[in-house]
Design a protein that fits this description.
By secondary structure, the protein is mainly alpha-helical. It has one domain. The chain is about 60% helix and about 0% strand. The protein has eleven helices and two strands, in the order αααααααααββαα. The chain has a two-stranded antiparallel sheet. Helix 1 runs antiparallel to helix 4, helix 3 crosses helix 4 and helix 5 packs parallel to helix 7. The radius of gyration is 19 Å and the shape is elongated. The relative contact order is 0.10. The mean pLDDT is about 95.
Length: about 230
């Protein structure tokens, strides 16, 4: 196991310990969508909740639960570890949107700190591993939406001089340049974060010398970037 993978596993273990303080509580919710046994399971020990029920609850809209934030907070260890390791069958951007709806940044400092440590370790591990369990674009989208900030993660990418980071960069460029998606790129299941201007500017400046893709020289993209820069100014 590489150094960055060990750091990620350590951060995930610390997350488990931090959230162990979240005690079981009587979960109430939509009895049309969830059987009584489902609510009983969600109210019981965390490790005994069936995987498919965790996935369902992780993706569910908040108004299906009487106390959505508390339920989501308690489920975080069962959600985040499989998401980070690429074994969770729920869209990463939806997880980010649900974390926002659960108000994760308002939780106790020990909990938010443990999550932030996972985010940082996950991003570093991703940029040093190719292929990675979750694509760099998907990781970047979750982190950006969850933290309401794209630039800090791009700065880490800029500073990461590693073949895996450059391979991820090539994949990202090929992805977002398809039909010029980058000019109006939004992240989050509900498109909460308008990432296009920041991402395009970064591609055309900070990492242009690492990107062997002539499409970045497109007059359309250059004009779009210049227009966005002038508007922002």
């Amino acid at each position: 196991m590489s150094r960055v993978q060990r750091q990620l596993m350590t951060a995930l273990d610390a997350l488990d310990q931090a959230f162990a303080s979240e005690e079981p509580f009587p979960v109430a919710g939509c009895t049309y969508c969830y059987a009584e046994q489902d609510l009983v399971d969600l109210s019981g020990p965390l490790h005994r909740i069936p995987d498919d029920l965790v996935s369902a609850a992780a993706a569910e809209v908040p108004d299906h639960w009487d106390d959505f934030s508390r339920l989501y907070r308690r489920l975080v260890p069962r959600i985040v570890r499989p998401v980070v390791t690429g074994r969770f069958h729920v869209d990463e951007e939806l997880i980010a949107s649900r974390l926002l709806q659960a108000g994760w940044t308002t939780w106790d400092a020990s909990l938010t700190g443990a999550l932030r440590d996972v985010w940082a370790a996950w991003w570093e591990a991703t940029l040093h591993t190719y292929p990675s369990p979750v694509t760099a674009r998907e990781v970047l989208s979750l982190l950006t939406v969850a933290t309401n900030g794209l630039r800090p993660w791009l700065d880490v990418w800029t500073a990461t001089s590693h073949p895996a980071a450059d391979a991820h960069l090539a994949d990202l460029i090929d992805d977002v340049l398809f039909e010029c998606e980058v000019t109006d790129l939004r992240m989050g299941f509900y498109g909460e974060y308008h990432a296009g201007p920041e991402l395009l500017g970064w591609l055309l400046t900070d990492v242009r010398d690492r990107a062997d893709d002539a499409r970045l020289d497109s007059p359309f993209l250059l004009e779009h970037h210049q227009g966005a820069t002038q508007y922002a100014g």
